[in-house]
């Protein structure tokens, strides 16, 4: 499996540069946390990384990308639309079949969402919506996770469960986090972003929460 | 204010309309128009619901034609919307929707005769063109993020069915329900050219002077449209759609020989049919152009421009009737009732009634077009004006109207008006069938003389004129930076 490498990438919004130019490489097996103040450019960086890793990447944007009118089952099922023939996908859109229902129930169980499987995503609370998107990422068969604040709407025990599940499932992960403790606990490398540039890039075990303070 | 872009364009249109008014034939030609109106009013006050057989059939046919036609159009339009980024498909859709339902019906009546197929196709085909355009616009507006997170290698159709369509679903549903209302009006009007829907019974009641029956038919029609949100439940729609084809009636049997002849002989230009070749074609086309098409286009344009400005004026006068900034809830209910009647009566039906009262001239057509379209725009603007927050010390009455409200609703008002420009023109051409010398008059004449080749050329010209006006309207809206929503009935 290849590394994820970007060279001299940058992004502008309305004529103002919001990210870069920066270069970055993530080797297989690495779990990377991206930290920094809101507006520093974390989301833009993840979106660009996803463009790079489009074929093997699993993307969980901050806005989640749920289809509000479809049920939790369907939103999670979407993670494997590429795995099945079209007739199978359409049949499941009309009526969920047994196999995927069992698989998805098992995932939702770990997220304490099993009872919501038939609810439309538009009628869920913020935390439930976020866990639905996590469910979709876990169900998807990709190698590199690119998650943008995947636990920002969850309480602490839930946030730990979700982080464990995510780093457990994906060999390689780049996760934007605003919670410094979570970042240090679940990843082995921390990248700090300030004003669109990399201000810090260190192994997690060499950092303490106070080292990250200047970024905020 | 008048020096602004919107001001100058508005003045230009008013000036053109005034000039048109100078050359238009506007006169009341009946001996005693008020007596006729009185008889109609008394028919409304003493509606006769006892002709139940006829009433029942009239409504059953109107509903089943509308449901079948709109359902077919929606399905076809949906599939067309999937490939709407192809230029060929876009042009094809623009063309089929530029031809009015009645023109389609006139064509199919020649082809299939008085058969349900003629009516259903007449609704389904232009509606498919409209659905394709609006569905694709609605789907285009949905959030692309959910499609972005799908795994690489997800097929196009799966991508569509799981993200774009479910996201756009609520808007697609609202718009389709609105088109069903339009379909009911179209279906009712098809009766005027011989299909067994409401218009047929209305015309026969009128021509026999049974005004109480006219009153009953119209009152039931308004009730049907006003109560739509009660009987048009989402769960019942499959029942209606599947049931409707069984209530279309039999009509006359289709003569397949006629169908073949229609395509292979009737619509082939005469010079080609008679072997005169391309040399014969040119004088033939020139003859149609100078004797029928040009006068028809001229009158259609004149009537359209007058009706457009009259619609605008009426809408600006009518919207305060339902705006909370001007009237209390009780009076607004009255205003709503007036606007509902104005916008649910099809232009063709209104023009027909007014023609009976005032006699043939452009006047009934202008008033009918202005009432119907003014009712629709007035309703939309009135509702929009309710959302304007008003400071506590704002002026009241006419000052409030002129300084606080109209300046704020004027851009959306113009957007709606220009959006309806093409619709008004489509309708203007059709009103020719009632005897006003727009393009429809010459189409109808050619069909009466069984010169279907001429009729086809004239219908083609009408379609091109509509496409032209649509393009011009889009350019003006872009120039004035007006945003229009696809669902004009939001």
UniProtKB/TrEMBL annotation, chain A:
The keyword ATP-binding applies. Gene3D superfamilies: P-loop containing nucleotide triphosphate hydrolases (3.40.50.300). Keywords: ATP-binding, Nucleotide-binding, Transport. InterPro entries: AAA+_ATPase, ABC_transporter-like_ATP-bd, Metal_Ion_Import_ABC, P-loop_NTPase. The keyword Kinase does not apply. SUPFAM superfamilies: P-loop containing nucleoside triphosphate hydrolases. It holds the Pfam family ABC_tran. Residues 4-215 form the ABC transporter domain. One of its GO terms (molecular function) is ATP hydrolysis activity. Transmembrane segments: none annotated. This is Phosphonate transport system ATP-binding protein. It comes from Halospina denitrificans.
From TrEMBL, chain B:
One of its GO terms (cellular component) is plasma membrane. It is a multi-pass membrane protein. The chain crosses the membrane at residues 63-84, 214-232, 239-256, 296-322, 423-443, 455-473. It is found in: Cell membrane. Its main location: membrane. It comes from the Bacteria. Keywords: Cell membrane, Membrane, Transmembrane, Transmembrane helix, Transport. This is Phosphonate transport system permease protein. The lineage of its organism: Bacteria, Pseudomonadati, Pseudomonadota, Gammaproteobacteria, Halospina.
């Amino acid at each position: 499996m290849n590394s994820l490498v970007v060279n001299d990438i940058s992004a502008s919004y309305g004529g103002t540069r919001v990210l870069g130019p920066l270069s970055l490489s993530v080797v297989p097996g690495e779990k990377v946390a991206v930290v920094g103040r809101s507006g520093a450019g974390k989301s833009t960086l993840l979106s660009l990384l996803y463009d790079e890793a489009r074929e093997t990447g699993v993307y969980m944007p901050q806005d989640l990308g749920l289809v509000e009118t479809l049920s939790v089952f369907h939103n999670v099922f979407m993670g494997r639309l590429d795995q099945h023939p079209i007739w199978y996908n359409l049949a499941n859109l009309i009526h969920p079949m047994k196999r995927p229902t069992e698989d998805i129930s098992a995932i939702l169980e770990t997220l304490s969402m099993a009872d919501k499987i038939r609810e439309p995503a538009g009628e869920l609370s913020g935390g439930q919506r976020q866990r639905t998107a996590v469910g979709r990422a876990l169900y998807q068969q990709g190698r590199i996770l690119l998650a943008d604040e995947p636990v920002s709407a969850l309480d602490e025990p839930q946030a730990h469960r979700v982080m464990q599940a995510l780093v457990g499932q994906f060999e390689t992960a780049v996760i934007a986090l605003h919670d410094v403790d979570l970042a240090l606990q679940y990843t082995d490398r921390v990248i700090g972003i300030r004003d669109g540039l990399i201000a810090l890039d260190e192994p997690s075990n060499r950092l303490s929460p106070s080292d990250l303070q200047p970024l905020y | 204010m008048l020096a602004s872009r919107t001001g100058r364009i508005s003045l230009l249109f008013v000036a053109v309309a005034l000039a048109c008014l100078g050359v238009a034939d506007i006169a009341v030609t009946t001996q005693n128009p008020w007596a006729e109106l009185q008889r109609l009013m008394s028919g409304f006050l003493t509606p006769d619901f006892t002709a139940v057989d006829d009433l029942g059939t009239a409504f059953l046919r109107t509903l089943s034609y509308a449901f079948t036609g709109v359902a077919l159009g929606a399905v076809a339009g949906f599939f067309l919307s999937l490939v709407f980024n192809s230029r060929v498909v876009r042009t094809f859709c623009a063309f089929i929707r530029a031809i009015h339902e009645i023109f389609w019906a006139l064509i199919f009546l020649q082809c299939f005769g008085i058969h349900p197929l003629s009516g259903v196709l007449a609704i389904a085909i232009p509606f498919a063109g409209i659905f394709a355009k609006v569905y694709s616009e609605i789907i285009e507006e949905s959030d692309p993020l959910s499609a972005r997170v799908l795994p690489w290698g997800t097929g196009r159709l799966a991508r569509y069915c799981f993200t774009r369509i479910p996201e756009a679903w609520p808007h697609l549903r609202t718009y389709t329900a609105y088109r069903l209302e339009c379909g009911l009006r179209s279906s009712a009007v098809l009766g005027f050219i011989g299909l067994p829907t409401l218009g047929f019974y209305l015309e026969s009641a009128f021509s026999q002077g049974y005004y109480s029956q006219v009153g009953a038919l119209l009152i039931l029609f308004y009730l049907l449209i006003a109560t739509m949100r009660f009987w048009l439940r989402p769960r019942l729609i499959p029942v209606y759609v599947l049931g409707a084809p069984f209530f279309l009636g039999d009509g006359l049997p289709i003569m397949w020989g006629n169908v073949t002849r229609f395509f292979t002989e009737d619509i082939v230009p005469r010079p080609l049919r008679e072997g005169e070749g391309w040399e014969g074609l040119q004088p033939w086309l020139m003859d149609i152009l100078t004797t029928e098409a040009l006068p028809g286009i001229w009158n259609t344009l004149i009537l359209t421009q007058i009706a457009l400005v009259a619609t605008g004026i009426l809408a600006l006068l009518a919207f305060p009737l339902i705006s909370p900034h001007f009237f209390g809830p009780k009076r607004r209910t009255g205003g709503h009732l007036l606007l509902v009647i104005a916008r649910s009566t099809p232009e063709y039906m209104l023009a027909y009634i007014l023609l009976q009262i005032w006699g043939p001239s452009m006047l009934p057509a202008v008033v009918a077009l202005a009432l119907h379209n003014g009712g629709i725009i007035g309703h939309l603007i009135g509702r929009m004006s309710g959302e304007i927050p008003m400071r506590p010390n704002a002026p009241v009455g006419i000052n409030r109207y002129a300084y606080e409200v109209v300046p704020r609703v004027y851009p959306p008002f113009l957007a709606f008006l220009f959006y309806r420009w093409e619709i008004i023109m489509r309708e203007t051409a059709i009103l020719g069938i009632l005897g006003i010398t727009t393009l429809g008059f010459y189409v109808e004449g050619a069909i009466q003389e069984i010169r279907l080749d001429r009729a086809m050329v004239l219908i083609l010209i009408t379609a091109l004129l509509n496409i032209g006006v649509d393009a011009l309207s889009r350019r003006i809206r872009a120039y004035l930076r007006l945003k229009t929503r696809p669902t004009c009935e939001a």
